[in-house]
Amino acid sequence: MNPLNLAVKALATDSIDAKLAAVARLAQTLGEDEHSFDGVSSAPTDLICSEPIRRGIPQRPLRVQPHALAARSNLATVAGRAALIHAVAHIEYSAIDLALDHAVRFAGMPHRYYDDWLKVALDEARHFQLLRAHLQSMGHDYGDFPVHDGLWEMAEKTANDCLTRMALVPRLLEARGLDATPPIQKKLAAAGDTAAVSILAVILADEENHVAIGDYWYRFLCVRQNLEPEVTFRQLIREYNAPWPQGPMNVVARLAAGFGESELECLTLGRVPK
In the chain, which end has fewer C-beta atoms inside a 10 angstrom radius, N or C? Predict the structure, then answer.
């Protein structure tokens, strides 16, 4: 079966367990083809499935506006730590759908593009399962706390243009995780939750690679369209009223993910183009 057809089905399911099973099947499908999409430089238009592309949303957790979320609970309590882990788990669950949608929505990209994002979806599913298992060990499960869907809202806004999607989802919003994760690890370590700290270390290492993939394809599309990447990135943040990157930044991780030192300086100073 075409992996992208399977990815469409995984994206569309509104069952958490069924989505994870579909992604597991996707992993098997990619493994069945020794070459997958690797090393193919042509730009296919026949890979994208003709089925309607939609996202399945599970009944739980409850989705609310960001301002309706309760203030972060005390991490000295199990409930407080569970609420924090749940928030991270929701980001990872959303990231499964984001990676699948990156892969199935945009035609005309090199084969490696599709391979990259399908493999990212596998990583995100693994991250979610690690966090969910930890939640369950604390007497909770995914769905126990309300969440907001800001990541997916940006995916919807950028659904018609791959360059904008790569800029504002992996390179902007998901890159925030590179900055936010170390302080979260520090707080969890202080609360004695070493298991969560170890899980977040795994996620941080993988997410650096995921942001690098987004950066690579963003720059690829800028070259294709004869655009200057760093100027265009700042212009898109302004055009889409997206959140400006907030410091302190994880400079080491961002440099490894493809950002340049001069760009990080501009972003730190908040130089939004007129």
Answer: C
